[in-house]
Amino acid sequence: MAAKGNVPAAPGSVIVPYGHVVGNEKWRGSELARRLQGKTKLIFEDGLGLVDFHLSNRICVLYISEADLVAGDEFKRRLVRFRNASSLGGIVIVEKTPLSEQYFSAVQKLVVLQLGMVLLPVANQEEASQLITQIVREQSKDHTSNPFIRKQCSQLVEASMFRTVQQIPGVGKTKALLLLQQFGSIHQICNASVKELEPVVGQTVAQQIHTFFGS
Amino acid sequence: SDTALCVLVDSREISSGADVISSLKAVHGVKVQVCSLGSSDYVVSNRMAVERRFLSELLSSANRNKVTQRLQHLHSMFERVCVIVEKDRTKPGETSRFLQRTQHYDATLAALLQAGIRLLFSSCQEETALLLKELALVEQRKKAAICVPTEVQGHKQDMLWLSLSSAPTSPCSAPLSFHALPISQHLSCAVSPSDIAAGAQVSLQRAEETYRYLRYGFDVHMLPENLCAKGKSSSTTRS
């Protein structure tokens, strides 16, 4: 599926209705399109240029088939042209098959490390349809349901202090808690003398803590 | 560039990623600093942490909570997080395992993308090492490389621990701000935020965060209960 379109994707040029996928006309009748229909609302449009599918107003998919990989460097020019011309978030879906596996690491280097785009391998169009479906689903979800998104203020200072103190050799959860309760701050723990530490954590660990900070 | 690339490696990776480490050193000539990172497997720059995960771990929803918690924590500490999905090793005599792609896997990839976490795919430990080197190179070009004193010895190696385990008091602040100063200097009463900023080459704002963090008064009632040890300490939390 080498894209011949010359029109680069401009942001906002394609409006994707909520929960829809806008597909490049050339995908009509393909296995991927057939499998997407029913799972997402797929509509086709002409003139999408280098883009194969628009998943939202900001995110689009460029598909690289096994045949594209075997055929040579044309797909690379297409990716570079897209990257230079578009400010859309580009997800590159690449067919990684026993035949095209050998090209994968070079493609990954180009797409992720040089162009700064996202690369996701699939074995075939069926897997691609499942992956696209999940991306569309994730897009339409509320951000708060994403477990990986950084939650402001959810990181309490106490929690990280507790973790920090456990990094001292010989100190686990129980002793970390005792130390923090007894001394109040990391600064105080570090500056405590062996004598002050002993009643809290015992002789051996007190000595270890003291040596660790090497004061 | 004239400075050697440096990658920090968590000590647990010595057993689970021996080939990654030896490949980094021997093939790529990267300076490997093994330390107790705790939160992440690798750190390739002063803002990027890398987590190495087997494909099978992401395919199965059994590990969901473990993976989620770890990445959530990493994401709160580091400006940039990258996950390297590594193909599982086949044991000698075992024909290569066929792992069925799952909906859970696709959903996880989609969620990671949405959260801005980078993804790389690797077929073996040697390729993982190559990817780590490439990431460190890219970060070096962006002037975010790790500055570690050339020879760190004995317990001073562990000065890294504090920096890496101390979560920032606000998102996006530098967890690596300790690097250029030994812990004892950070902790001496005389040191001021501007000393930290100058010594560790971080912004004054970040130095102030570090300064405040070390002196922050611990309140046990603010500690989330799920973090405490089972049994006796959970009752302490409630008291």
TrEMBL record, chain A:
Q: Which GO terms describe its biological process?
A: interstrand cross-link repair
Which Gene Ontology cellular-component terms appear in the entry?
A: chromatin; FANCM-MHF complex; Fanconi anaemia nuclear complex; nucleoplasm
InterPro entries of this UniProt entry?
Answer: DisA/LigA_HHH, FAAP24, PND, RuvA_2-like
For molecular function, the Gene Ontology terms on record are:
chromatin binding
Could you name the domain of life of the organism this protein comes from?
Eukaryota
Q: Which keywords annotate this record? A: DNA damage, DNA repair
According to the entry, every stretch annotated as the Fanconi anemia core complex-associated protein 24 pseudonuclease domain falls at 15-136
Q: Which residues form a coiled coil?
A: none
Keyword DNA repair assigned to the entry: answer is: yes
Q: Where is the DisA/LigA helix-hairpin-helix motif domain?
A: 168-213
Q: Does the keyword tRNA processing apply?
A: no
Q: Which PANTHER family match?
A: FANCONI ANEMIA CORE COMPLEX-ASSOCIATED PROTEIN 24
Tell me what this protein is called: FA core complex associated protein 24
Q: Can you name the source organism?
A: Coturnix japonica
